[in-house]
Queue: 3 jobs
Job 1
Amino acid sequence: MTGDYIELPDGTWKRDHDSPPSLLQTLKQEKQRLNTQRNVLPQLPTLSLTALLTRQFPEYPWLVDKLLPQGGVMGVAGEPGTAKTWLLLELVQSVATGRPFLGRFATQQGAVLLIDEENGEARLQRRLTRLINHTPDDCPLHIASMSGVNLSEEVWINSLHNTLAEIKPSLVIFDSLVRVHRGEENSAQDISRLFAVLTSFRHDFGCAIVFSHHLRKMGFIRDLGQRVRGSSDILAYVDSMLGLTKADTTFTLAQFKNRDGDLMTPLTISVDDPTEQTTEIKVIGEVDEETTKKQQVKGLVIDALADGEKFREELLAFSKDAGISERTLAEALKELETAKVIASIFEGRKKKYSTFAVLQTIQPIYPLQGLQKSHNGDDELTPEEKQALLQLWFTRDKPAFTLGRAQWFNMEALLYSTDSFIDQKRHQHTPALRQLLDEWSHNESYAEIG
């Protein structure tokens, strides 16, 4: 109130005599209420040390023993194709029924809400039906599939809040994290805003939250924690983080964060189909450290060679930076070569590696069976040898053989050689073989070798 005027709640002014006394009194009261409301500070509840130490908490703090605390948050991260969804469905069934997760981690039975934005109802039906320990129809499992949940929008936050109030789940699973918000996953601000929503759900309903996420390609990064895609706030927020990596025909499940206990020993798990109608997820055993390092260095080598050929010394430097021994690298390289994932050649005294798929694009000539000849000063191939070479050139068979190194070019080199290497070595070949290589390099065809 100032003089003959009164300030209204919307900030405008009105003369006293323009309004009846009752309205003026109401406006004054509303103005006072708004001013009081603006000056109210948020309350910060505190707890004394004695109150904290004497407060009674549940005796069993784990929803999933040693992996996920009650009301906690866990991430399951992996590259595409590492059975993340299968593992989540195993977790869903375990908590909903009270069975041990993976047959070894005790669970507290409770209702589960699965929010699926990856698979759709048809695929979920197939997978849940196939799981060998399938979920009983009457278990407290609730599914929302491909509903377009978007926790960046207030309307969806309120909707999910109402659903949680109705279901009262012990566990909420999001598959996947990137699909349930529209923020930028590399932005700490956007991720922090998303996690504030998840924290409100945990606070209001006491539910634990699990989400699937992605790992970056290994590159030269050994630490799984550094491979979690997006903002570092993702790893900082969770209480527990599991990582899934491919290991030949099996998967390695490792825990690389646990706020409430020791990290579990990495496990080798399999996802097999014992029958045409069933799928079984089981733990094969614990992974020893040496095997884990070998799998890591295999990924390192493959990613390194994706950028081009590398000498062994270069791969050794990368592996040492990742804390992996030369012996482990040597074993990994041998296994990758045996599996025809990578291939090697010698350039002088140095060994160079390339990915086998890339090397196959040069259409290699494979070695000839039984063609050996002692050095006699003759630089020409015999007609029989020329015919055998020509026949192999057209058929692309892969017989096992060796040629004598003394006079003839070792044909094994061609199996894994690049065009540049062949050019460098062409002066060492016999005239007939040089002609063949020249025609090969120019993609020319011919009926015979002169």
Job 2
Amino acid sequence: MGGAISCRETFSGFGAGGRARAGADQLLGSLSESFTEVARSPKLVYARLAIAKQSLLPSPAFRDSAVWTGSSGAVRLLEVQGAFQGGRYMLSAHPSVPAPKNPADSRHVVTLSRLSDGEYRWDTTVDFGVGAIRPNDVATVLSRLISSAEGKKAEEVRGRPVAPDRLEVELALLACRWLGAAVLQPAAA
């Protein structure tokens, strides 16, 4: 019985009734679609490889105009649009990417700014369409979902032994460590 109450509280951020169902379906559907047969445009493939190779010493990437979709003075810009089309998630680099309109649509913006000779700063922004659910409600659901296991043994939360799925459990724990304060809230006193 405690588990059912915990689940109800965890997912109450979706709302109630039809609104809750639609919000959950859109959020989870958009996340699923964004990992379905991901395809990248040739420009994005080139840009990703150049950025990955030169991320710690970015001056060659900064000078390579083929990496960027725009530039202005000491700033380089890579804009990427993501959308679920034809059974796959297509990511393409081009200028002036619009804000997401539909669930699973995304806009990724990477900037490289030259601050001085030999000093650069990377910035990344990702906007992702998740449907009608509000951002604060998504944060509430994620925070409650992650904290619902607090103080419990893994077997209690899962209802089965951990050993057969150890890799999945370790990945979930790693995600919690990475996301940290973005999704976890202190327990109520």
Job 3
Amino acid sequence: MSVPFETLDDLETAMTEAHADERWEEALTLADQLVLVDPDASPAWQIRAISRTYLMRHEEALGAYDDALHHIGRLLDEADDEVEVEFLDGGDADTDPRAVLHFNRACELAFLGRREEAFDGLRASMAYDPNFGPAARRDDYFKAYFRDPEFLELTRSATLN
């Protein structure tokens, strides 16, 4: 597949700029193109998912988060000390993006009313970073569960660690 950019770096730069400027449709199109020609472009996997969230394509976003978790897990498993895996938002090789990917996926599930799956996703996120428990208490996607005893216990236990 050819891309309308001279280099893959040009495509990745355009995608990153569209993401930063919140041009979600453009970011999504570019991210979809990039993963086809470079399946190791970890920011593209993340942008394909988050763009779908911002475009309110919730069911599509779930699949994109699954894809991102799969491919980024593969990249991290294959990485060695000499290979740095890039992540969004200034992350580095010491930062595991699966925490936010699981959290965003859980948000989508909560929005869609899939309570048990949402709570399982939140637990997965919190296994990487317990701060996502308190974050869920402030996230509108979890609003339907703000008074749910299991949700309160799940997110409260995170604040006690």
